[in-house]
Amino acid sequence: MSKRLDINNSGGTYPVLIEHGLRFRIEEEIRRVCPDATTIFLLADEKAAAHHLDDVMSSFSAAPHVILIPQGESSKSFDELERVLTELLEHGADRKSVVAALGGGVTGDLAGFAAAVLLRGVSFVQIPTTLLAHDSSVGGKTGINHQAGKNLIGSFYAPNAVLYDPAMLATLPEREWRSGFAEVIKHSLISRAGLLEWLYAHVQDPSDLQEDALEELLYRSIQVKADIVQEDEFEAGVRAYLNFGHTLGHAVEAEAGYGGWTHGEAVALGMLAAMHLSRMKLEADVPLEKVEQLLKSHGFQTSLPRSFNHEKLLKRMMHDKKTEGGNLRFVLLKELGEPELVPVDPEMVERAMKEVTADD
Amino acid sequence: MSKRLDINNSGGTYPVLIEHGLRFRIEEEIRRVCPDATTIFLLADEKAAAHHLDDVMSSFSAAPHVILIPQGESSKSFDELERVLTELLEHGADRKSVVAALGGGVTGDLAGFAAAVLLRGVSFVQIPTTLLAHDSSVGGKTGINHQAGKNLIGSFYAPNAVLYDPAMLATLPEREWRSGFAEVIKHSLISRAGLLEWLYAHVQDPSDLQEDALEELLYRSIQVKADIVQEDEFEAGVRAYLNFGHTLGHAVEAEAGYGGWTHGEAVALGMLAAMHLSRMKLEADVPLEKVEQLLKSHGFQTSLPRSFNHEKLLKRMMHDKKTEGGNLRFVLLKELGEPELVPVDPEMVERAMKEVTADD
User: Fold this and answer.
1) Between chains, do B324 and A10 touch, taking CB under 8 Å as contact?
2) Which residues contact A203 (CB under 8 A, 6 or more apart)?
3) What is the ipTM, given to two decimal places?
4) Is B94 within 8 Å of A155 when comparing Cβ atoms?
5) Is A302 annotated as a binding residue?
6) Hey, are the CB atoms on B321 and A85 less than 8 Å from each other?
7) pLDDT in tens, B12-70
8) Of these four, A293, A300, B57, B124, which has the most CB atoms within 10 Å of its CB?
């Protein structure tokens, strides 16, 4: 089986290919979307490289220059961006070069941003190796972190292709599976595409995600995201819905120190807080307990340790990109599949944080 | 008198207003193009600020936060970009903030790039204070330099408006007038709009550029640029013609150390070399001696000092953005007003460099 989505954006259309074994055909697929490519550069996450670089390299007639990216959010930094750009330039990058990212969200975000600003933009191909990257690799968001918050510096820069070989996900540790699964749950909550029901029916735990079921999950979850980013490429409207769970999530992730909590672990907690807020603010009928149970059975932490300082979290949330004129805004659910962007008072956010804080 | 051009780009249309006294109406004009602006930030070149900041600030009902940018190309650096972004974020920038650049090309390029990557893009307004900025402020090129060459890192990011008060040019030192004038001459050579004839007739020396004549010059020169960037926003084709004189120009500027030669001084020399190449390579009929005379009468240096190492210049030119697959390409003239992008052998470039090198 293999699956394909075509995603429209202001610059054209790019394919997302999902196929077991695709890693052995990388050069062919890159040259199909970038027929006038000069040099191809492979920016590879160190850990992904350890598992998959040999396979990917075997697809090339001439070995591309490889730049290894250290694991973890700390690579989404100014220093790392500068190092990567310097290495690209010193190895002869020109305007028809292609930057390909082999790795998860960190590598994709960093490499995509480097591609966006190198010579004011070169071609860019995503080769995701994590479940989380099914989300980050589609939609054209690239960027790095800033001490003031996550993803505060970056570009909208669509890839020329996303080449997804689900077989590479087999080497993922459980914690990273979980991190990606949080975004799948998010997609299931903000859309009416029936994904939540499909999950209950087919995915009791990560071991269910093999071969065709995994391709199906990736396809369905990416489809939710694709529908939204096609409607709103530059996040002027509905795209903000993808931020469901991320307002508190980003703050928890930052406050824990990048890498302390995975992105998905923090977002899972943020989704629970956002569902509490949906009840408080909109008196919404949301499947909070059901989702909490699903998260627990997939090994997620569903309460915030008391060590987190709520005032500091709130201060970080004020730097959230949805904040406007100093007013906090959250994506809440009017009901399952019906997200809405809502201004929320800091006092109510404080109450929601208490709701998700551990009792002791 | 006042003049207005409307420039189309993929994101819409932005106005270029040219008007004596416009500096006293900055806030009004910014709010006209950015009606939902939250905070406005003014990134001001230190020297421009010394002359004009009080006037510009007097146009605001509430003083915008000002970030001073040190003079000179060294501000187009990673470090300065990071400093500016940090200051913007620490002073509450959000997605509806406006970054306005008061200054010349350096400030505009740096501020525009900061606006492009801050929260993946905020509104941006150019308030040029130099003649050179008539060129750099239009067309959406933003960026910083890299040790490997000028403008190698950046974005295409169109401003929301260009607000040009020619009265601010009165404080420019002669050397900076000259630097900007080189781009006017460039526009006159690559277009058939009659600008070269107009210059011969109306602009014997900088003292001729007052009031209406200055507005007319800005309008005509910007019109040439606007016609080209509207045809080719992302430099896939004819926009490369704007690089006439810049291949050697950038190399000379970099090799002299940024700030040693002004951009325009280096470009003037680059245009002479490009006209020699046009004769050598295309047997073109170009007004080389006439332009050399015009440059001399405006105080330009028309020969390259022998201290420049041609091999080093050539190596720098290999990093030029027009280089593809290791092949140097120059914008040459088939005749006056007829530019063309042409691959040129390094040996011929070497001969052209000798042609423009001082005898002793």
Assistant:
1) no
2) A209, A213, A217
3) 0.89
4) no
5) no
6) no
7) 999 999 999 999 999 999 999 999 999 999 999 999 999 999 999 999 999 999 999 99
8) B124
